[in-house]
């Protein structure tokens, strides 16, 4: 389950950098929970082709994160905002933290 969440986050941050074909197949696996066989039949490629494409996409998305660190920064900001909310008793501060979290 944790791997799927990680894949989803990576896709949220860097998915637009994949080709349209890669995005479509990756979304079917990660977001739509389709089997490799279902996707292969729909896309007209082999099951192994789908598997290889997913592995390449995973590697590509991980490489983007290792270079850009957007997901890491997002998690750090979110964690710090949660700490601010816990430490503050000011309603205005908590509202502002909630607003920022919602925008993230």
UniProtKB/TrEMBL annotation:
GO terms for molecular function: DNA binding. Keywords: DNA-binding. Pfam families: UPF0122. HAMAP family: UPF0122. Might take part in the signal recognition particle (SRP) pathway. This is inferred from the conservation of its genetic proximity to ftsY/ffh. May be a regulatory protein. Belongs to the UPF0122 family. This is UPF0122 protein BEI59_28695. PANTHER family: UPF0122 PROTEIN CBO2450/CLC_2298, UPF0122 PROTEIN YLXM. InterPro entries: RNA_pol_sigma_r3/r4-like, UPF0122, UPF0122_fam_protein, WH-like_DNA-bd_sf. It comes from Eisenbergiella tayi.
């Amino acid at each position: 389950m944790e791997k799927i969440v990680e894949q989803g986050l990576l896709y949220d941050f860097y998915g637009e950098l994949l080709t349209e074909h890669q995005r479509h197949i990756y979304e079917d696996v990660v977001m739509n929970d389709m089997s490799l066989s279902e996707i292969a039949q729909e896309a007209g490629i082999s099951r192994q082709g789908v598997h290889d494409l997913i592995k390449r996409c995973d590697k590509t998305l991980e490489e983007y994160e290792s270079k850009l660190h957007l997901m890491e920064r997002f998690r750090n900001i979110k964690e710090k905002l949660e700490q601010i909310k816990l430490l503050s008793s000011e309603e205005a501060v908590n509202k502002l933290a909630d607003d920022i979290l919602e925008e993230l």
